[in-house]
Amino acid sequence: MDYRITGLSPELFEPFFGLSDVELAWHGAARVLVDEKPGYPDRIELRDAEPGESVLLVNFTHLPVQGPYRSSYAVYVLEGSRSRYDRVNEIPEVFRPRVLSLRAFDRRDMLREADLAPGTAAESLIERMLGHPHTAYIHAHYAKPGCYAARIERA
To answer: Is 0.90 surpassed by the pTM of this model?
Structure first.
């Protein structure tokens, strides 16, 4: 089964790009200068930020539904990013060294299934979850910190 993985749209974060640290703090966000790799997984390009790059740590509502699974959490976004990850049948390299929590939701945004997988074995779990007719989409999270990583759906 073909699947599509997408990062977050950079347009969502453009208002934060270039703000001062004080202005970011007023919005509940923070700028972080990347000092190691891996460690700062960008949610737009779906890659680890390089040392010396600037990322913004922001609270993002990744499941903006009116229901019990509405959810937000902290995510890193590469400051100034303009290129959203959007690939078919391709697991981003940023997933490979991490344990993923994959959460399958139905068309009513209700959780139907959840499981863990090492990033190197995510394809089979994605295919299994999307093989169920009740699955409308999957949210991938980085399992250890629990933060949102990307959206996965049928291609």
So the answer is: yes
